[in-house]
Amino acid sequence: FYLVLIFAFFPCNSESDESCKKHLGRVLSIWEERSVYENDVLEQLRQALYGDRRVRKRTYEQIKVDENNCSPRSSPTDPPQTTDLIRALQELENAASGDAAVHQRIASLPLEVQDVSLLDRITDKESGEQLSKMVDDACMLLADYNGRLAAEIDDRKQLTRMLSDFLRCQKEFLAEKEHKLE
C-alpha cells in the first residue's frame, strides 16, 4: 500500500498548502513511532512530501542540545513577516496543552493503571490480560500526548525566536525613523 501512498504524497510537495504538509507530516511521525512502515519506506514518503528538504523527528536530547547551543542571532537577513507570526500564533491555539478532551481521558484512567499497589487485585489470567490491555492503551495515549507536547514546545521556541527577531527589527526600524525625523 505504501507504493500508492508515495504517489499520493507528491502533489502535496508542489502545492503551497503548509497545513496539508503539516498534517501529513504528523501522520508520518505517528507511523514512525508505531513502526507501521520500515524506516526506508518512511524516508521515501518524507521525501515525496517535502522534496529535498529532510524533516527528521528530534529526540528530547537533541532538542536540549539545540537549546543549549542556541544563541540569539545578531542580524538575521529577513525578519519574520507579520502574517507568519499571526499564522504561528493561530496554530498554537489548537496546541496539545489546551486539549481538554485528552486531559479528561488521562484524568479518567482507571486507578489500576495509575497505582502499582493495586496489582494485588489481579486474581486470574483474564483480569491480568484486561489490565495489560488497559495499560497498553494508556501508554499509547500518553506517548502520543507526550509527542504532541514536545512538538508544541518546539513550535513555541521557534515562535519565541520569531517574535524576538521581529521585535528587534521593529526597534531598529523605529530608531532609524526617529533618527531621520530628528
From TrEMBL:
Signal peptide boundaries: 1-16
Record flagged with keyword Zinc: no
GO molecular function: RNA polymerase II complex binding
One Pfam match: CREPT
Alphabetical GO biological process terms: mRNA 3'-end processing
Entries under Gene3D superfamilies matching the protein: 1.25.40.90, 6.10.250.2560
Annotated CID domain residues: 1-53
Record flagged with keyword NAD: no
InterPro entries attached to this UniProt entry: CID_dom, ENTH_VHS, RPRD1A/B_C
UniProt keywords, alphabetically: Signal
Family: Belongs to the UPF0400 (RTT103) family.
Name of the molecule in the record: RPR1A protein
Organism from which the protein derives: Thryothorus ludovicianus (Carolina wren)
